[in-house]
Specification:
alpha/beta; D-Maltodextrin-Binding Protein, domain 2; 3 domains; two-stranded antiparallel sheet; disordered N terminus
Length: 472
């Protein structure tokens, strides 16, 4: 009599499981090996824009993405990571994995955020690549506004402090600081005009058109379409001299009208500190071709695009850009620590409050689900009648599946960047299929086909970059 005979089905199942798992890993490794390339870039790149769609930073970002895509011969996707008054986008871009596949469109706000204790992020956390443009702030009102000149606006502010409403960006971001500085230069309190925070110039200008705002402070290019259509008027530009562009040279500076206040917004590209030098060098080389006008897309150069849109195209190479960032940081450290600016508060709610609330609610919900499942399991095991046998076995499985869903989400969050989307998803799909009762080979097949298919759909067709992992 063979005593081991009863164990053969179990042993066979174990062997099949091991064989399927090994086959799945071999196939995934083979796929990654075939697609791996030592040459940068070998997959889509993300360009993170910290401000809303339609604004000046968004337009510059999207056009730069077109040129980078043409020069690097790989998809470059713009992601608008708004919120936190610029913290969200800058953090996502600068603190990304230092592999060259996430580029940050940095703006003037980077020089301000840490001085306001909104983040510990500074320009020194980035590897500056190149600055792209510098545009001064300007004051805009609706075409039928009662304010015909800057003097009219100044008089109204002095007569009615705290009544007029303005916007252009988040509280204490670039354009808010521009307006507050102008008010201080007039010996006014920076709160004499109520600032309505927004996600950028585009939504602010729309509110100006609807009459919800009295004025907007932003750059000339951001307001160009409404200026050309005659829907709004420019009262003054915060620059030393009038703009050279034919589209904007007719608009007077504030200096011409008695104010010495100036403020210029800038935009530039940076990448995560620690990115390999050869990747940085390649990106800088490509950017030099773009900003010099040597590179062309659809018959148009970068400088021609910027001129047509009314954007300044002053650029600074890497070392000069780094020095420029350092000077800006020091300057705004002095400005934002002045008593006048200390009174311009962005409110008691910081940018991390809502993520913390959401995380807390998620944790509370998870605890509630697990406690409820445990109670149902305890109640079912307390019943001893044979009619409850099915409930006794079903309840633990339901609880296990609930826990596995949560575990899968956590595992994907922790492992995707290291193992890559395909490998991580395949592991999750394989285990989930097994828990649902599928056969080993079926689970392995579904895991491999689905994970690879989803990756190709997003990365290839939709051009949405997904984590590759260290093995790819």
């Amino acid at each position: 009599m063979n005593c081991s005979a009863p164990n053969r089905p179990s042993q066979l199942r174990e062997r099949r499981t091991l064989f399927a798992a090994g086959l799945m890993l071999v196939m995934l490794s083979s796929l990654s090996g075939c697609q791996k390339s030592s040459e940068y870039p070998s997959r889509p790149i993300t360009l993170v824009c910290p401000w809303a769609v339609g604004g000046g930073t968004d337009r510059v970002s999207r056009q730069m993405a077109v040129f980078l895509e043409s020069e690097l011969d790989t998809p470059v996707n713009v992601v608008n990571a708004t919120g936190g008054q610029g913290v969200t986008g800058h953090s996502r871009g600068i603190r990304a994995k230092p592999d060259g596949y996430t580029i940050s469109m940095m703006t003037l706000e980077l020089s301000m955020l840490h001085w306001r204790n909104l983040t510990d992020l500074t320009w020194e956390d980035a590897a500056p690549l190149m600055s792209l443009n510098e545009d001064p702030a300007a004051l805009f009102v609706k075409a039928d506004s009662e304010f015909q000149t800057v003097k009219d606006l100044e008089a109204a502010i002095k007569d009615r402090p705290g009544e007029l409403k303005a916007s252009g960006t988040a509280a204490l971001a670039a354009w808010h600081l521009a307006l507050a500085g102008w008010l201080i230069s007039l010996d006014q309190n920076p709160t004499d005009v109520i600032w309505m925070p927004s996600q950028g110039s585009a939504p602010s200008l729309q509110e100006l058109m609807t009459g919800d705002l009295d004025l907007v402070c932003c750059s000339l290019p951001e307001a160009k379409s409404l200026l050309v259509s005659g829907d709004i008027r420019c009262l003054g530009v915060m620059a030393d001299n009038r703009q050279a562009s034919d589209d904007f040279k007719a608009y007077p500076t504030l200096k011409e009208q008695g104010s010495n206040w100036t403020l210029t917004g800038w935009r530039g590209l940076g990448i995560a500190k620690g990115t390999p030098p050869e990747i940085q060098t390649k990106l800088v080389t490509v950017l030099k071709r773009i900003v010099s006008g040597e590179a062309r897309v659809n018959g148009e150069s970068w400088t021609e695009f910027m001129d047509k849109q009314g954007f300044d195209h002053t650029s600074r190479p890497t070392t000069e850009f780094a020095d420029f960032l350092k000077r800006n940081d020091e300057m705004f450290g002095v400005i934002l620590n002045r008593p006048e600016f200390q009174s311009v508060q962005s409110g008691p709610v910081g940018p991390n409050v809502f993520p913390a609330i959401a995380g807390g609610m998620f944790g509370l919900s998870l605890i509630t689900v697990l406690v409820g499942a445990g109670r149902r399991h305890a109640a079912s095991t307390a019943e001893t009648t044979s009619s409850e046998t099915i409930a006794e076995t079903a309840s633990p499985r339901a609880a296990l599946l609930s826990e596995c869903v949560v575990a899968s989400v956590v595992f994907h969050m922790l492992a995707a960047d290291v193992l890559g989307f395909v490998t991580t998803s395949a592991i999750i799909l394989f285990l989930t299929s097994k828990l649902l009762g599928a056969r080993v080979l079926t689970s392995a097949g579904v895991a491999i086909v689905a994970s690879i298919g989803i990756y190709e759909l997003f990365s290839g067709l939709l051009r949405v970059p997904l984590p590759i992992g260290i093995f790819w």
